Amino acid sequence: MKLIDQYLQEVEKNLKSAKVKANVKEVGIVEELRDGVALALGLDNVTFGEVVEFESGSKGYVIDLMEDKVGIIVLGDYLKIKSGEQVKALGYTLSVPVSDEILGRVVDPLCNPLDEGSAIRADKTYPVEKIAPSVVLRKSVSVPLQTGIKAIDALIPIGRGQRELIIGDRGTGKTTIALDSILNQKHENLICIYCGVGQKNSKMALVVNLLKKHKALDYSVIVSASASDPVSTQYLAPYAATAIGEYFMDKGKDVLIVYDDLSKHAWAYRQISLILRRPAGREAYPGDIFYLHSRLLERSCRLNEKAGGGSMTALPIIETLEGDVSAYIPTNVISITDGQIFLETDLFNAGVRPAINVGLSVSRVGGNAQTKGMKQVAGRLKLDLAQYREMAAFSQFESELDEETKKLLNRGSKVTQILKQDKNKPYTLAEEIVILWAAHKGYLDTMAVADVESFEKTLIELFRQRGADLAKHIVKEKVLNEETEGRLKKLVEDVISKN
Hints:
Lysin; single chain; 16 helices; Rossmann fold; 499 residues
């Protein structure tokens, strides 16, 4: 009996000293499966954005928290999942692996390679959803982001840390403007991210080939969620691309990110919301559609020195129908961004490329994002163009015009012609200033409209041959003094005498 008592005491002592750890897991059951979305019961303590794993091996992302169930976006093939199978919460929010190795790569929204390269080794992971930097961490936008497109750099300047919307009908050159801006960053120490949402695979292949051809892929990342991909990945793509951009921004670097396009992103979110049976509002979009894009674009900014001094410039693209900028999604994104570049179908069809409507386009950062030299030559251009468009509309009904009106129409037609530009041929800042200086000083006024294009080509060729020192001086000084203007005058007069 004594032996039994001793044994029991020993067992009791061991039990008291033993450290037992309970492994608690949040487990639920799949109640219903819809198109790319699963509804699960029993996950009472999950949070929005948390990653879950299904019994079949697929993973998901919590997007909807209801009273008795949760809505989960399935990441991958949802057809493997069966109703009634277990789903467990993994205890962390959805993040993407990031490192410098991602430069030059084509990836999906979860940073899995889509090119033929190896898997990306991650330095760290960045959350897909993140609160935007607060006002105290931000700095005013003042450093120019040169797009290489004369019409934009002169009339609608973009600064590093700005959000500038590119808006227009299908086939008006929206993507071309964004890609030309990426091509122009080769010597600008800027990292570029192109995010394709709902695009054809053939278009994405063309984008990759274009960037490779111009050696722009070395400083770029392409995030692709094509039209053939599930809407869940199309919804996540812009957020994942922004997380990649934030990795570089936090390292103090400048980033340019293109969202092509947010109309298709809104369509993907509408599809998910309707499957989740959320109440449909205007144009069948859910009530939080504004928040969808505002929380995305607010993450683009310029940080102050204490926060690292990096910046992220956003160029979201929105497709309109029949030029209707008053539709739901266009008005939403216009109100979120710091300006818009409006591309007009009639101008495009008339041969004005890029087809920018100067009257409807605006940059709320304005001259703060321009060098002094560009301000000097671009100051009157916008006014000349605006007056020209207005006068041209009325002059077709007038038989006799006064001299002042004729001067305005003549100057406006030449400025319109000089702002035309071939795609994928961005200009340097010095080249833009030289061309616009000639227009500003009235050298084009006496030319025929048909001769303006050949004059521009000859001027640029001569400037590239003879103006290397002048180009360095313009970029370094950032202002046109009397000596610089004298050299420009001689160069332009030499071209005119040749023609």
